[in-house]
Amino acid sequence: MSEVKALTPTPAGDTYKGWLFKWTNYIKGYQRRWFVLSNGLLSYYRTQAEMGHTCRGTINLATANIAVEDSCNFVISNGGAQTYHLKASSEVERQRWITALELAKAKAVRNQAESDDSGDECPTSPPTSGQGGGARNSNSEVQSTLRTLGSKVEDLSTCNDLIAKHGSALQRSLSELEGVRLGADTDGKIRQVTERATLFRITSNAMINACRDFLSLAQAHSKRWQKALHSERDQRIRLEETLEQLAKQHNHLERAFRGATVLPLSQSNPALDSKSSGSAKGDASDEDDENEFFDAMEDPAGFITVPADPKYHRSGSNVSCLSTETGIDDQSLCDEQSLGSNSESPQSLEVEPVRKRRTKIPDKPNYSLNLWSIMKNCIGKELSKIPMPVNFNEPISMLQRLSEDLEYYDLLDKAAKCQSSLEQLCYVAAFTVSSYSTTVHRTGKPFNPLLGETYELDRLRESGYRSLCEQVSHHPPAAAHHAISERGWTLRQEISLASKFRGKYLSIMPLGSIQCMFEKSNNHYSWKKVTTTVHNIIVGKLWIDQSGEIDVVNHRTGDRCHLKFAPYSYFSRDVARKVTGVVTDKEGKAHYVLSGTWDEKMEFSRVMQSNKGENGTEGKQKTVYQTLKAKELWKKNPLPEGAETMYYFSSLALTLNEPEEGVAPTDSRRRPDQQLMEAGRWDEANAEKQRLEEKQRSVRREREREAQRAANLPEEGAEGVEVAEDGVHQDNYEAMWFERTEDTVTGESMHVYKGGYWEEKDHGSWDMCPDIY
């Protein structure tokens, strides 16, 4: 047993050592020698003690040929100059050496090829010192590490090939053993299976050792790379701080220059004078609320705001003087005061609620998304018929999302009280921005409404308005919305969605327009929505951004508010989700400047005078507005407690699925899959969602067949046709509560509420409603 143990080779990292018998000559025959396999070289010694001083011979495996003669003998030759006839004490030991030699040979061949390639790319100039040399050394070190890791991966690949080879041989032996009859051949077959199983185990151990070496090497270099990453991160932070300081100094000098050369009022403005002279007083600092700086980057109509001259803040006898100098009438200044007085909180406008609304829904279950559970339902089905699981949804429909735009209805209530159309336009613009505030954390997709699905939001006794939505088209999906208030305003919209998947993000582009009419002033406003972008679709945490431009137009007076939603940029110094806007009259004269963020608040400033500034860095001329102190126009309501476990719903969104008596049978509150999802029963919700979608397809096919029979068309006549040019759907579907008309003011064709819903609700008669659930 001790002799067998002595003959067993021992691996040590990339080195393999052990005793083998080497053929010397016909007189002495085979003699025992100590062999060492390292770095692609096989060397031998008479004893282990000779390793430090005397090597008896070495052969390079990169050019060697390895051949097996029998169960214990094998030959290593490099083409005739050197040939080693070797013998192991057993077949198992021989196979261990063969496996180690094959791995070492494959690695030596790769190293030789890499050295030949690197020789052709030698630098023609000596390395330089300093930072460039350090970067070059760092790069060469990384390349060396990558080559080492690559060689380890190649070792793993070679081991994998050997395992496959020996595994196949073992499988063949086991198959042959099953057909062997008991007798003389049995012992030989069993011995063969045992030997091949041993070879398979040896090769597997080699694979395990190679994996262990690769893991230890990767862990060792991972620590160094983490340290280098932290160093690079610190340098980047220092660079950002330096750039920020330079940007502040640039803005300081630019504004001081404009104040001295462009603004005639700066001579009498102590705040600007102190800033021009570099004073560090608080009232002239860059962080002062009265001295805010707005820079609409990449916008030809960019602007800058500076504090107005102190004489504009005077009252009494000076008002008439101001009117003469700036062209601002007394009524406009009074409107400024009324605008500030209208800023009372929403609670002061509301009456006591007639019922207590719910403030909590069941927590969102922590279900992991199993991709196989989706893919197995897609086998053999058309793409349009693949049901998307509710894991991607939130438990409200798109109709309810549209109704959620009324979260800040009080802005329209205030707008209805305004005497000035320009003042009213400020509130309408703030209302358009406020509708996006509920989307900042809402990465879940709302349910696609079924054709004919409706949703009512009756807050007449609580907040003075009532709202109705209906899904008026399925291909393309389109929803119509109508809301009317006792406080003198009407809101209507028709929205359809177009989306584009661009690899890392999804762009959602709302199509259609929104209109708001005020009864007292007959002002008619219209605007469109901006693009919503969902980032990190494939990998990472989902986040939402809003970007684009909105023009809110008063069609009666010609007033206009141009809003710009700045897209998020890692390199921008501006606050995230920034929104800026300018309110102008039909002559193009600016009266108000709006600023803020679409997820937090909006402020407005009264423009007292404007001047054309100097050209910017890209040759774009910016307008300098002298404004009064900014005042708050709108502020987002805080989310309810525990919103992160309730899909980040707002207080209004929590009540949208609350049961209501007397609603239509097509109301979204009655949709079963949506209710199941809210209750946390997602598996049942997925099954119910699939049933509803299949039912909708069946109803649509039947409707198409009826239309074909009525028109005496062949069955294939209307196939694939969705919508005619005039907007009438070829499947013969007509909306229940809306009708398509052309607006006489804007000239747009859209679905408008035709009446009758609330009257039918009062009568409790819903016989005309289709059975969609």
Automatic annotation (TrEMBL):
Gene name of the encoded protein: LOC120034643
The answer to whether UniProt assigns keyword Transport to this entry is yes
Among SUPFAM superfamilies, the record links this protein to:
Oxysterol-binding protein-like, PH domain-like
Q: Where is the composition biased (Low complexity)?
A: 273-282
Protein localization: Membrane
Q: Which residues form the PH domain?
A: 13-106
Keyword Cytoplasm set for record = no
What is the name of the protein in this document?
Answer: Oxysterol-binding protein
**Molecular function per GO:** sterol binding
Coiled-coil segments: 229-256
Q: Give the keywords, sorted.
A: Coiled coil, Lipid transport, Lipid-binding, Membrane, Phosphoprotein, Transport
